[in-house]
Structures are given as structure tokens and as C-alpha cells.
């Protein structure tokens, strides 16, 4: 935090004579401008990381939704005969819509440059629902695979894995949002 | 945030002539001392609320642990014949030790007046484990109760409820810690 003598070298190259405030900014690095621009850059990186994680969560939720919804093979091999799989499908649909809305809002805010509202609480609630539904479906699938190992149990296992991946992405995104909260006002 | 004319009335009563800095503090209310003391009081309340919630989480974890560990009634009515119940027991033991350590550290920090370190991430991880284990054990118990309704299924349902209560307490505590993070540096 004390190495404030590193001035950004790109600034000299890309704008040598565009405005008159550039030399003032150069001499101002000793007064703490460089740490602030470094913080801005880190915040921007965190925002993009959070967006990427929510995009991943959307992708995994959508995959869990599609795989589980198409998991009907007749007889006992229908997902809607088991409450665990119905629960997983319901939460996957909810998470798909939630993360899609989040990503759209993120992109809109990144493009317009407005302040991003924190939605850590709702992301944590959806993450709790995802981990609950994914872990509920695990024992049933385990018991089925002891007896028979076919396309139905494989699809169920794939949907459960996608649910866990969506949970991990969303939980990490909520963590990053918390980190943003803790550092955004130290400037 | 603008009603800074409310001076704390207790200060006049409890320390009328103990030190010489009291009148200076009284005249300083117009310069923003009252919002700061109010913020301190709110932070103190949040700390106590977080402590109470972690105490509740400890209590519920301990209850889930005891109820599930004593849930052995012979024949098929042993908790350790089912992986869901073993998972719930393991997470209840982990959560009991974790919340006990948290409460002890909280009390120590409240009494010594030191800065409380944030442990939101670990609390969230334990909360994820609690909700995962509690919801995993639900479908098995439901299926058993369709066939037979005895002391084994009742004890299992009680332990699952305690697990959910412990999850709710710990998740709320993690939320309060996040709120502390977001306001602690606006002074």
C-alpha cells in the first residue's frame, strides 16, 4: 500500500498532449492519486469478475433446468415421479430467471456507468436454495445407481452436478460482492 | 441523519462532574458528535445481536447433535444405518464446535473491547453445510413416515428441524456481519 511511486506508464503514451490537466495529475501521484486509480481499477476488475460468475451461474442453472426437464424415459424413469427431482427442477428454473435478470442488470449498469446496487442477500438466498435442492437429490440417485445404471440416472447425476456448479458460482459472486462492500468506502 | 440536536440525556445524569471534557463534548454535538455516538450504539447493538444469533445457532446445533446421536432404537431404527442421518450428525457436530468457538471469541472480544474480526465467510460455509445436510434428510424421513410413525421418525424430524433452525440463525448472523462491514467505515 506504500509503493505510490508507480505511475501508470500507459498514460504518457496514449495522451501526450490532449489536455492540460495531465501534468498536474503526474505530479499529483505523490499525494495519493495512484492508489486511488489502482483501487478504481481493482473495483472494476471485481465488478467484471462478479458479472462473469453470475454469467456462469446462469449457464449452469440453465443446463440443470434443461437436463432435468428432458429426463423422461417412460416407466419408472420419469423425473416427475420423484419429489427430489421436481424440487431440483423448480429451483433450477428459479435460479435461471434470477441470474438472467442479474446479468442483464449488471451489463446495463456497466455500460451506463451507474452505481451498482448490492444484491448480496438475494444471491445468498438463491445459493442456499440451490445447494439445498442439489444435495437433496443426491441420496436418491445414489440408491438408484446401486440397482441400475442407465441414461435416467446419468442425466439425474448431470443435472445435480450442474446445480452444484451453479451454487458455487453464485456463492463466490456473493462473496465478491461482500468484498466490494467492505472496501468501497476507504477512499 | 440530519437530526443532530438529540443529545444523549443519560450522559448528564451519570457523570455530572467526573471529568473536564464533558462540557466540551456537549458543545460539540452541533459538529457531528451525536451521529457518531448513535452509530457507536448501533454498532454495539449489532454486535450483541450477532452474538445472540450465534448463541442460538450453537444451541440448535447442540440439540440436533444430541437428538440425532441418541436416535438408536434397534433393528432398522438406528440412525447410523442411513447416510443422510450420518451426514446430518457430522455437520451438527461440526457446527456445534464452530459456533461454540465463535461465541467464546465474541464474548472475549466484547469484554476486552478489541476490534471484532470478521468471519463472515466461514459462517456462510457452515450455514451452507447445515442447509445441505438438513434438506438431504427430509425425503428419507418423509418416506419412512408414510409407512410407520414412531419415536425414530419423530426424533429424526426433530433433529432436522433443529438443523434448519441452526441454519437460519447462522445465516442471519452472517447477514448482520455483512451489514456491519458495509457501514463501519462511513464515519
Automatic annotation (TrEMBL), chains A, B:
TM helices/strands, residue ranges: 51-70, 85-104, 125-144, 156-179
Segments for region (Disordered): 1-29
Domain Casparian strip membrane protein residues, every copy: 46-168
Keywords for this protein: Cell membrane, Membrane, Transmembrane, Transmembrane helix
Pfam families named in the record: CASP_dom
Major localisation: membrane
Compartments where found: Cell membrane
Annotated signal peptide: none
One GO cellular component term: plasma membrane
Domain of life: Eukaryota
Membrane topology of this protein: Multi-pass membrane protein
Subunit and partners: Homodimer and heterodimers.
UniProt record similarity statement: Belongs to the Casparian strip membrane proteins (CASP) family.
Name of this protein: CASP-like protein
Annotated source species: Populus alba (White poplar)
Amino acid at each position: 500500500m506504500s509503493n505510490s511511486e508507480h505511475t501508470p506508464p500507459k498514460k504518457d503514451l496514449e495522451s501526450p498532449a490532449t489536455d492540460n490537466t495531465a501534468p498536474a495529475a503526474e505530479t499529483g501521484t505523490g499525494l495519493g492519486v495512484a492508489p486511488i486509480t489502482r483501487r478504481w481499477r481493482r473495483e472494476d476488475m471485481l465488478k467484471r469478475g462478479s458479472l462473469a460468475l453470475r454469467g456462469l451461474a446462469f449457464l449452469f442453472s440453465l443446463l440443470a433446468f434443461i437436463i432435468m426437464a428432458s429426463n423422461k424415459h417412460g416407466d419408472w424413469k420419469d423425473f416427475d415421479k420423484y419429489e427430489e427431482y421436481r424440487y431440483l427442477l423448480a429451483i433450477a428454473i428459479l435460479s435461471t430467471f434470477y441470474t438472467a435478470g442479474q446479468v442483464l442488470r449488471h451489463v446495463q449498469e456497466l455500460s451506463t456507468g451507474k452505481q451498482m446496487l448490492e444484491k448480496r442477500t438475494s444471491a445468498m438466498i438463491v445459493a442456499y436454495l440451490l445447494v439445498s435442492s442439489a444435495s437433496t437429490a443426491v441420496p436418491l440417485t445414489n440408491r438408484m445407481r446401486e440397482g441400475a445404471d442407465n441414461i435416467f440416472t446419468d442425466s439425474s447425476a448431470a443435472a445435480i452436478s450442474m446445480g452444484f456448479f451453479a451454487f458455487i458460482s453464485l456463492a463466490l459472486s456473493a462473496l465478491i460482492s461482500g468484498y466490494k462492500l467492505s472496501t468501497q468506502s476507504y477512499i
